[in-house]
Amino acid sequence: MGKVTGFMEFERLKEASEAPEKRVKHYKEFVITLNDDEAKIQGARCMDCGIPFCNNGCPVNNIIPDFNDLVYKQDWKAALHTLHSTNNFPEFTGRICPAPCEAACTLGINEDPVGIKSIEHAIIDKGWENNWVVPQAPAQKTGKKVAVVGSGPAGMAAAQQLARVGHDVTVFEKNDRIGGLLRYGIPDFKMEKFHIDRRVEQMQAEGVTFKTGVFVGEKLAEGGITNLAKETITPKELMAQFDAVILTGGSEVPRDLPIPGRQLKGVHFAMEFLPLQNRVNAGDKLKDQIMATKKSVLVIGGGDTGSDCVGTSNRHGAKQVTQIELMPQPPEEENKPLVWPYWPMKMRTSSSHEEGVARDWAVTTKEFIDDGKGNVKAAKCAKVEWVKDEATGQMKMQEIAGSEFMVEADLVLFAMGFTNPAKSILDAFGVEKDNRGNAKATTDGEGCYRTNVDKVFAAGDMRRGQSLVVWAIREGRQAAREVDEFLMGATVLPR
């Protein structure tokens, strides 16, 4: 694919970005899309490798060699068609996907992999610029009604697929805007929200109805979850109105840290902090926004959410930002012969880290210290080591004696992941849960994506637990196919 000898002639070209000292002054995207010539060269690097592992590395099974080749040939419209055949929203994944496809690239065995994500980004941006992304209204209506609960990427993908085959689809969202964690979890500097808005416009033209500010369930019992609902609809009412229901809510229950001092002012979940800035950027006036301005910020958790807290804190004008992680520091380079083509464990530095942060690994937090007025002023931490339990074979954490130290912190943000979707929502529907608290449903075979409740399906984080946007899109698409077959007895939607 591409130019047969291109992988030997051209080096990987990373997308340019605005300098850190400039981009921390605003909340706009700062990554610069490849121009036509740059994208062509990246497409040329795609090898005629015979077995494109990138296809399987990609959760939505993007036909990557084909669109790489089409970009090399500068047939952008065909490249967009190929990309859209597997991925409803490449403008989301082209910006915030960690690109497992690149980890699986055959060229990546001994060279830098093809810049697949940057090519995807360029294709969809060109598609929007040239008005090639247009509504695909169904040829005829089926008369069947489907409710989608949750408007994140899984819900949006499911809704779009079902609308395009003629079903009347209504998407219910508990917050005031569509997008789920894309809207109120991903900072604007990683993905501006007009990308969601124009997809909503497209989907409305395709026949999808969106209802915001509606909570589906009895009552949201869990804390730490953004809920801006002004009305409630019970599962019983929903089931009476629709022929099928798909639960596509996020895995929103945050992992807590119940240690001494947890109750102090200034200790928050990341998802109490991040959505507020998104709302302000959207024009909302908030009285009690949590701000990092001139504060010493401690971010507990070394993943993407933690990175987003770092980037947002720096834009607030934090005095200093420290990020700690319980796990040991990963290696700078993965053991490629051992892990390729799978996602490697290795040291990753995000764009937010480049903007300024002190990072530490193998650190446990033992206590938050009171300033005497009920506010947090510091965290007592300690270094840990991971030791193999000979009896079970499991790695267990143990504190290193005498390793305690203090971290100055008047704002603490928990970014330690999410445990499960809201139990109260699943219980309201009577949906059986797996041992992790997710909706129990399979992904293969007869009855996949179906729950134990008649005509109720589950997909995305609601079914698999916290995961990537690209996995949500995959599950939303596949669930849509199963719902269509359930309603019509057959389906033309792709698996």
Tertiary shape = globular
> What are the low-pLDDT stretches, counting only 5+ consecutive residues below 50?
none
Q: How are the strands of the biggest sheet laid out side by side? A: 3-2-1-6-18
Q: If you consult CATH, what is the topology of the largest domain?
A: FAD/NAD(P)-binding domain
- Give the overall average pLDDT: 97
CATH class of the largest domain: Alpha Beta
How many beta-strand runs? 18
User: Structural class of the helices, strands and pairings?
Assistant: alpha/beta
* Total tally of structural domains: 3
Helical region count? 20
How would you describe the overall organization of this protein?
By secondary structure, the chain is α/β, with parallel strands linked by helices. It has 3 domains: 6-129, Alpha-helical ferredoxin (Fumarate Reductase Iron-sulfur Protein, Chain B, domain 2), CATH 1.10.1060; 145-253 and 418-488, FAD/NAD(P)-binding domain (3-Layer(bba) Sandwich); 256-414, FAD/NAD(P)-binding domain. It contains 20 helices and 18 strands. The chain has a 5-stranded parallel sheet, with helices on both faces. The chain has a 5-stranded parallel sheet with strand order 8-16-9-10-11. Strands 12, 13, 14 and 15 form a 4-stranded antiparallel sheet that branches. Strand 12 and strand 13 form a beta hairpin. The radius of gyration is 23 Å and the shape is globular.
